[in-house]
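Memo to structure team: turn this sequence into structure tokens by end of day. - J.P.
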Amino acid sequence: MSTKKLVIGIAISVSIIAILIPISSNASNLSLLGEDNSKRVFISQFDKVLNECSSATGLALSNCKMLIGSLQSKCPLFHVPSVCNDSRINGTINAKTPSIIIQNSTNFTTYTSSKFGFSINYPSNWVSSEYPPYWNETLIVNFTDNQNSPNALILIKESHNINDSFQNVVSKYLHGTGISGYPINIQSKDKVMIGNKEANKIQYSQSIGSVTCKYEDFVINTGEFVPIISFSNCDKDTFEQFLSTYETIVDTFKKTW
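Reply from structure team:
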């Protein structure tokens, strides 16, 4: 039997992930620069993030909340400089995302992968793409809410080998999911069916500084590969607003051969 791997991740909160990773890494390694220099670099980085996030809207705001929370958690390392009490922090963290109107759930279009033999439906006002296409037998599928939130992506998270038992795959995924360095808090883990395939539906949260991000993941056993469909957001209202659309998308996943 083929052991091709596929992961689809629905992560409507990743528009500034390229900024998040290097800043988080640099902050944890700033001690290499010496105490005074590292503190100056940290303050400069934090101030830059606050400037860029002050006008963030839509789903990009969720990423700003996550990023600011991560930097905030490192403030004690630098004896809580003034930037850690900047009024822009609360302004961004407490900002609310305006209501987002998406098309009725019956107005969907279908994405089909002939290589991996699956299809999944998504709102017709979203845009789908592959990145990178069919790299190393792992398919990355991006879906972008182009009309309302151009930074909202449905994105790959991780891949797994089906040679392992399905429950071991689930356990390993949970061990490494979320933002590295911040433990997750599992609210529920239920066995469900997606079509005729067994799956685990997992709801969990992660506290990053003063920010709490919410997740709902589906890990699906197709018998040939294990897709992981994951939705996350660090804005509670946005998470709840998109949750039903996300679950509708997941319910349409099916094998085509």
